[in-house]
Design brief:
7 helices; alpha/beta
Length: about 250
């Protein structure tokens, strides 16, 4: 454990599948996996308990099969996407273990030869025993996004905050890649996120967090040390919560 104490005892970290590969590419780059693993371990050394919800978009998105003339049933496509998250989970598991961290991969879809079934109390016990828990296969049901699965996990595991790691610094008024004049918010309330359709997370995920008062932090994981900084409470990214503070205006 480092001398810096965590601001949060327990977090759920949402990682997209795209964090495991090069921009614009598909598949898994173990260099990227190891980079993310190192950042997670650095944050873990503060004493924070960490569960990671992983996406699968770098391998397959269920939505890519959804069209009027699609051969694959939409529910089947969602299951395919969930299985892709398990592949990423296996990569992250080995990545974490290779840098000296004890971890467990748990899936909402049973596949006992590959990983543990997700059981809430068992996941909590793993974290209490200083293990990082990787949660794959979403909720195990179709028509549910990984964002909603992450929000559900944060509530179910009694996390202090849901942290969404992205490739931008926070929540912007518009897509900062396409609009250079987009401004970043330091903080937002849930209603504003939905009213402005800021697309931080899907509406079901935001509604879940709003109903139960689960704060959400959106930050850039690509900057070395940012996961650690987020865990120790440094001012970082955008905080979404029940009310907007005085600094809620967009940054100029």
């Amino acid at each position: 454990m480092t001398d810096q104490q965590p601001a949060y005892k327990r977090i759920v970290l949402k990682l997209s599948g795209e964090s495991f590969t090069h921009v614009g590419e598909r598949g898994i780059s173990m260099d990227h996996v190891l980079h993310v693993s190192g950042q997670i371990v650095q944050a873990k050394q503060t004493g924070c308990q960490i569960a990671v919800v992983i996406g699968g978009g770098n391998i397959l998105r269920g939505s890519q099969f959804v069209s009027r003339n699609a051969v694959v049933n939409e529910a089947t496509a969602h299951y395919m996407g969930m299985l892709a998250t398990v592949i990423n989970g296996l990569a992250l598991l080995d990545g974490l273990e290779s840098v000296g961290c004890t971890a467990r991969l748990m899936s909402s879809i049973r596949m006992d030869g590959v990983c543990e079934p997700y059981i809430r109390r068992r996941a909590q016990r793993h974290m209490e025993k200083n293990r990082i828990v990787i949660l794959a296969a979403g909720t195990g049901r179709p028509y549910v996004t990984t964002d909603t699965a992450a929000a559900s996990a944060a509530l179910e595991l009694e996390a202090d905050i849901l942290m969404k790691a992205t490739k931008v610094d926070g929540v912007y008024s518009d897509d900062p890649v396409r609009n250079p004049h987009a401004v970043m918010y330091q903080s937002l309330d849930y209603n504003t996120v939905m009213e402005k359709n800021l697309r931080v997370m899907d509406s079901t995920a935001i509604s879940l967090c709003m109903e139960h008062g689960m704060p959400v932090m959106v930050f850039n994981f690509q900057k070395d040390g940012n996961i650690h900084r987020a865990v120790i409470g440094e001012k970082l990214g955008t905080i979404i919560g029940p009310r907007v503070s005085a600094d809620a205006a967009p940054l100029s």
